[in-house]
Amino acid sequence: MTRVIAGVDVGGTNTKVVLTTPDLEVIDRVDLPTPAHAGGAAIVTAAVGAVTGLLVRHRASLTGVGVGAAGVVDAATGTVLVTGNSFTGWAGYGVTRAVNDALGVPATLDNDVNAFLLGEIATGAVAGESDVLGMTLGTGVGGAFVLGGRLFAGPRGAAGEIGHVPGFGDALCTCGQIGHLETIAGARGIADRYAERSGRRLSARDVAVAARAGDTDAAAVFQAAGWGLARAALLTAGILDVTTIVIGGGIARSWDLLEPAITAAIAAEPPVSGATIRLAQSTLGSDAVALGAASQVRALVLEAEPA
């Protein structure tokens, strides 16, 4: 039987499961609704059912399952610690133990932004890079670091929280503080800033459509978002000497609106080191988190195998 790895991306609305070769080449994938308010056991059972279905379809032998999940997780124990109100009964749930009990293979858990970055490094836009900042632009702005080829979480697990760095205006952030990056570069922030300028409430996606159609208020909002992302890149380059950044998430699909502003802002204030900042748009799209999770469990399985 073909040996395969499964990667799982548990979101508040949908769960994605990918089946890959040991080299992380996607064999198949499936998307299913997440039973987000039915508790941890139901969420894992749904994902396990999807994995099992793919195994049967491809007559494959499973070697491990990696899970990426939104929220704060304890990767060492494989437990979800904190979630938003999109979930009920997910915080405190032992994910890796439940997956191992159900499928009898090693399992890993990490948060979705870490998994996103690992996916892009493993087989995506920044493949093979050892020092990278990853940013996801969704409802808010998430971040993660890989330094020296390893995830860097910091002593309290808060490294990479680039969305909550202050100095980006005076708008109130969802966390209760003022002027954080996600107030101008996340989907909610883009919609809010457009409403302030125009008096009209549109989704971030529709603000992008308006910008492409010549709406100057919409264009200005995306220019501000690009400026903010450039500042985040420059701060990272100055503090950590990390000059490779990969950006994904729903807002990154408006790369045509963001990239010119990012590039112009970086050109105006380049790093004093003289280093060139490399900006890359995600190439894995919605597979990134699941593939990153698969790469984590692959590393675990390879470490356990005899030399």
The CATH topology annotation of the largest domain reads as Nucleotidyltransferase, domain 5
- The outline comes out as globular
CATH architecture of the largest domain: 2-Layer Sandwich
Helix content: 25-40%
Descriptive account of the structure:
- This protein is an alpha/beta fold and 307 residues long.
- The protein folds into two domains: 2-116 and 286-304, Nucleotidyltransferase, domain 5 (2-Layer Sandwich), CATH 3.30.420; 128-282, Nucleotidyltransferase, domain 5, CATH 3.30.420.40.
- 39% of the residues lie in helices and 23% in strands.
- The strands form three sheets. A five-stranded mixed sheet has the order 3-2-1-4-7. The chain has a five-stranded mixed sheet with strand order 10-9-8-11-12, with helices on one face.
- Helix 6 (204-212) crosses helix 7 (216-240).
